[in-house]
Every structure is written in C-alpha cells, then in structure tokens.
Amino acid sequence: MATKGAPANLVKRWLLEREVEDAGGPERQETSREQQPWWRVVCLTGVDYFSTLGYIPGIAALAAGALSPIATVFIVLLTMFGVRPMYHWVASESPHGRGSISMLERLLSFWKGKLFVLALLGFVATDYMITITLSDSDAATHLAANPLAPDFLKGQEVAITLFLVALLGAVFLKGFREAIWLSVFLVGSYLVLNLIVVTVGFYEIAISSHGVVNWQNALLSAYGNPLAMIAVSVLVFPKLALGVSGFETGVSVMPLVRGEEGDDPERPRGRIRNTGKLLNAAAITMSFYLIATSFVTIVLIPARAFEADGPANGRALSYLAHEYLGNAFGTAYDVSTIAILWFAGASAMAGLINVVPRYLPRYGMAPEWGRAIRPLVLVYTVLACAIVVVFGASTDAQAGAYATGVLFVMTSAAVAVTLTVRRVGSRTKTVAFALVTLVLAYTTAANIIERPDGIKIASFFIVGIVAVSLASRIRRSLELRHKRVEIDDEARHFIDEACRDEEIHIIAHRRRSSDDPAEYAAKLAEQRDDNRVPKDASVLFLEIEVEDASEFEDVLEIGGVQVGAYRVLRAKSAVVPNAIAAFLLYLRDQTGKMPICYFGWTEGNPFVYVVRYILFGEGDTAPVTHEVLREAEPDPERRPSINVGGR
Predict the structure, then answer these.
(1) Helix 226-236 to helix 210-223 angle, to the nearest 10 degrees?
(2) DSSP string covering 439-487, please?
(3) DSSP 3-state assignment of 645?
(4) In 564-621, at which residue ranges do the beta strands (DSSP E only) sit?
(5) How far apart are CA 29 and CA 256, in angstroms?
(6) Spatial separation of the C-alpha atoms in residues 97 and 248, rounded to whole Å
C-alpha cells in the first residue's frame, strides 16, 4: 500500500513545494535590491502595453475603417487628459503596488467592500487571462504568416497558440522570474523596429500621395463632412479601447520603482514622483505610436487585407515591414514581436498567480492550495487552452473580452479617484474625474453590449473566486485570527490584581447601556447564581464590540475601564468568540494561571446564530469560543475553561 502511495505523494510534494511568495511578477514583495530607475521599470509596463501594437492597428482598422486615425485621436485624448492624471492619483494613494482596487477597498467598508473587491478580481483575472491568450494568438499569427516559415505552419494558428500557451505553463511549472533587463531589451528593440516601420511608412506616403487621397475620398464618401466624422468616431472609439490598457500594470510595478533616499515607507514621495514619470513616459510613447501606426496602416494597406484571413489581419505593422523593407527585416520584426508578445503572456501569468494572495489571505479567504504555484499554473493553462480553442486563436474575436476586463478595472479606478478627490474637497477635480468616469463607463457598457464574451468570462471567474473564497472563509472561521494582543496600563493593573487568586475569573458581558454600575452588579449576581462563581473571587468583565465583521485578521487591543466597583476590559474586534479565545490564551501565557470564562446560555435558532457568526462576528458565543480554543490548544489540561449556565 505504501509503495502505491509513494508516487502520489511525490507528485503532491512536487505540486505544493513552491508557493506564491517565491513567484516572480510585478506583484512580488518590494526590496531595495530589486528596485530600479523608473525608466527601466517602464519597460516592464511596456511589455504588456507596447506589445499591443502587434494587433491594435489591425483591430482599429476593422472596427473603425477609414475613421481609425480619427477615432484613435479620441483614445489618445482620453489617455493623456483623463486616464493618465487619474492614475497619478492612484499612484499617490496606493504607492505599494495594490492599485485602484485597494482604494476602493478602503472606501467601501464591511462585506459590500469585500464582495466588490472579489467581483473586481474576476475582471482582473479576465484581463490577465485574455492577455495570455490574445498575446500568444497574435504571436502565432506572426509566425504562421511569415514568408520564411515552413509550409506546415501555414493555417495552424490554433495549434501554434496552444503550443505557446503550453510552453508558458511548462516554464512556470519549472520556475519563472521576470527580469527587468530582459524587458528593457525586448521593449527597446521592439520600439526601434516599430519606429523604423512608421518612418518608412510616412516616407512612402510622402512620395506617393494617392494613398492619402484614397483615404480622404473614403472618408468624404462615407461621412460627408468633418462633424459627421467626429460624431461617428465618438461612437466607434470604444472598440479601440485596448489603447489605454497599460496603466493598471504601471501602478502595480510601483514596488520596483526606486524612490529617493529617506523616503517615508508609508508614503514614499520619491517613488510616487518617479512613478508619475513612468506613467507619463508610457502614455506619451504609446500615444505617438497609436496615432502614427493607425495612420500609416490605414493609408498604405488595402481595406480587404485587414479582414479575416487577410494578409494584414492581426499583423498590420508586420505586413508593412515585409512589404516595404523586405523579408529579412520583416522576419526580424516578427521575431521581436513574437518575443515581446510571449513575454507579455508570461507577465500576465505571473500577475494571475499573484492576484489571489494579494487580497484574499487578509480576508481569510485563501485556501491553502491557493498559495501553491503549480496547481494554479495547471488550472490557468487549461483555461487558457480552452479560451484559445473557443475563440479559434483569433485576435479580433478576443479583443472585446480583453477590453472588457481592462475597461471595467479602469472604470472602477475612475470611481475610486473621483470619490477620493471629493473627500479631499476639490470641486473642479471632482467634476473632471466624474466626467472621465462617465466616459469610461460609456466605453465599458458599449463594449459589453456589442461584444459580451468578456462579461461571460469575467462572470465565470467571479463565481469561482466568490465560491472558493466564501468556502475558505467558513472553513477557517474557527482559527485564532488575532496577530497579537495589546493591553493598556489600566487593563494590566486589573489583570495583576486578578492574578492574586489561583485562577483568573472572567465574565463575558455584552453591554446594553452606558456605564451603569447596576448593570454589572446584576450580571455578576446572575453569574454567581447560574455558574457558581466563587463569592470571594476577584472578577473581571470582558466586553468585545464588533467593529467590521468582514475583516479577518487584526490586533486585539484591550483597554481597562473602572465602572463603579467593577473592573471592565473592553476591545473591538471583527469577531467576538475568537477575540475572547485569543485573550484567554494570552492571559494563560502571560500570567501562568488558568483563566475561567463564564457565559450565559443563548436562546434562539442555532442555525441563525451560525449565520450571524459567519456574517456579523457574533452568535452563540460560548460553544464557538470553546471550539476556537479546542482548535488552538489540543491539550485539554492547558486549555482555558469555558463555563456556561442559566435557566
């Protein structure tokens, strides 16, 4: 039997041996050794952001036709004057890489905030997952369409994409760490090659004006006048929303940005300032390339070439590179594009792996297996392969799903910034960011209505994340949740006095009025009668007030209050029974004496009390406190005593 179980144990050990803390990616823990100048870190952002140039011009041409350059101008205006300043605020409010989600987490309290974050994580997961499949699909398109590629690769985009996704999974199973130096090389070479293509494109346009004339004629025949062009561009520009996709990544890599010596760790102004430079550089660079590439591709490439199975579909700039610079340069361009797209997928996989432990452990919602890298990689790889097959490795088909994830996260960021600015008290900025929020909300809604695939994928992730999270929270409900217990001087004085007896007697009490000695006198008399509390015992009252039941871990701060002749210990916590258990164990360890805690019976439906405990942090306190103690201290002889009495 042991022999049969050995291979299974080896597989299990291999699957679980590496945890998320060891993973690479922009979400990893910040250390001074890893921090780099902002201009290098912008390349890590650019791996995701700039790599979209591989497919955005073709998608824009299909979506907007001859209006593509004009609609792109609207995207650039939104980027420079809406999204860019918005993410400056996000960087300022969340300088440790948690992004806009952490802002909403602070603004929305209790369970509604937690559930909103879980839902938002579903859209984040959609963003990362489609980044993997879309990037690898476009890489496959460039490889299969290359004139120098072997004939057996022609028309095999799905198979090539599945291979690239499987290769990505295999690399992560072995171990992957993003290297900034590699991203600098990939991004630098890719931007230079694109600049060459754009420059040659403008040169061709300059020496032969018929392309511009044909474009102008197409615009005038379809729309008649500039006002109509602008109006239609406003309607179609949501389809080009992939052009604003890089900003959330920009703030997620903030821990890697080197600040200034003497920066306050809580609010590192040097890092915030340098991240602003990073965001500006990324926005300006991408804005230039968006306008330039949309113009040269729409003018130089025939409209039918952008269509499905056309030579420019999914590879518009590669088409120009081969057409005007020859197959040798075109192949070099394809290699660079494939490399940066695959690395963008790797960066997305790293982000996907890290997104769970970034939030869920603090909510008590991360199952143990959720911290192991390899099971997550296997699950995500299978899902990515399924998405590739469903969408047929088509970049056009996946663009809507990708835009949904990106836009929903950005819209939530706009809401967070608007609420934050409003609290600061700036009316002008509040109105400005409210307008940005409306534009992004319109863009998101228009994209979802026309291309609902993204909301379907996001819904799958949302249901999965919420179900697993709530199940984990319920399973872990009996854990000791308090990192430590802190007591003030008055509470310490009360405890020292209580230690004069052989045992420490504590009455769990729920205060029903203001500090009225009569209430405590009645409670003491009740407990002496019901629980046989010794008449000569020195008694402490313990009161736990629920503050935010949706939280999981916190520090238990105990304060002492004298109410008439009675000594009262008071604290706030997310949950009552666990706080009482943590305090009893603290007393045992600090005083060397065994605490005895007295409770009254709770009346009512037990099931209702279970629900109240899970959702609101209080319920049938006595038996739950006993179970928490039993989980925390397996030795009954060392376990604080729980006494329950009543009629």
Answers:
(1) 90
(2) HHHHHHHHHHHH-THHHHHHHHHHHHHHHHHHHHHHHTTTS--EEEEEE
(3) strand
(4) 566-573, 595-600
(5) 9
(6) 9
**The pLDDT of residue 568:** 93
Low-confidence ranges of the chain (pLDDT < 50): 1-4, 22-33
388 to each of 134, 159, 499, how far by Cα in Å? 8, 9, 67
How far is the C-alpha of 257 from the C-alpha of 26, rounded, in Å? 11
Q: What angle do CA 104, 28, 417 make, to 5 degrees?
A: 20
- The residue whose two tokens read 């201290």 is 633
The phi, psi pair for 261, rounded to 5°, reads -65, 135
Q: Where does 488-553 show beta strands of DSSP type E?
A: 504-508, 539-546
- Tell me the sheet residues that pair with 598: 507, 643
Q: In 312-394, which residue ranges form alpha helices assigned H by DSSP?
A: 316-359, 373-391
Q: In this structure, is the dihedral angle defined by the CA atoms of residues 354, 355, 361 and 362, taken in order, positive or negative?
A: positive
Structure tokens at 46: 């650019």
DSSP 91-160: HHH-TTTTHHHHHHHHHS-HHHHHHHHHHHHHHHHHHHHHHHHHHHHHHHHHHHH-TTS-GGGTT-HHHH
Token pair belonging to 108: 């929305």
3-state helix, strand, coil in the chain (%, to 5): 70, 10, 20
Give the alpha-carbon dihedral of 44, 50, 54, 58, to 10 degrees: 150
Tell me how crowded residue 416 is: count the other CB atoms within 10 A of its CB: 27
Q: Report the predicted TM-score, pTM, of the whole model to 2 decimal places.
A: 0.78
Q: Which of 362, 352, 377, 388 is nearest to 461 (CA)?
A: 352
Tokens for 573, please give them: 């916590």
Quote the pLDDT of residue 2.
44
The sign of the dihedral angle between the CA atoms of 627, 631, 635, 641 is negative
Instruction: Copy the structure tokens of residue 431.
Output: 């109105």
Neighbours of 392 (CB within 10 A): 14
The whole-angstrom separation of Cα 52 and Cα 294 is 13
The conformation of residue 55, written as its DSSP 8-state character, comes to: T
First to last CA, the chain: 54
Strands 539-546 and 482-487: unpaired
Say which residue the tokens 């950005």 belong to. 410
The alpha carbon of 455 is separated from its chain's Cα centroid by a whole number of angstroms, namely 17
The phi-psi region of residue 591 (left if phi > 0; otherwise alpha if psi is between -120 and 50; otherwise beta) is alpha
Instruction: State the sign of the Cα–Cα–Cα–Cα dihedral 112, 116, 117, 121.
Output: positive
Count of residues in the chain? 647
**Residue that is written with structure tokens 């600049």 in the block:** 195
Domains defined along the chain, listed by start: 2-475 (1.20.1740.10), 482-645 (no CATH)
> Residue 544: what are its φ and ψ, rounded to 5°?
-115, 120
Burial 320-340 (b: 16+ CB within 10 A, else e): bbbbbbeeebbbbbbebbbbb
Bridge partners of residue 645, in order along the sequence? 600
For 599, phi then psi, to 5°, come to -130, 160
Task: Tell me how far apart the 2 most distant CA atoms of the chain are, in Å.
Answer: 105
Residue 94's pLDDT is 84
Q: What is the CA radius of gyration of the chain?
A: 30
Residue 480 CA to residue 580 CA, distance in Å, equals 10
**The pLDDT value given to residue 165:** 92
**565 token code pair:** 């002749």
Residue 107 exposed, middle or buried by CB count within 10 Å (0-12, 13-18, 19+): middle
Q: Cα(21)–Cα(374) distance, rounded to whole angstroms?
A: 13
Single-letter amino acid code for the residue at 326: G
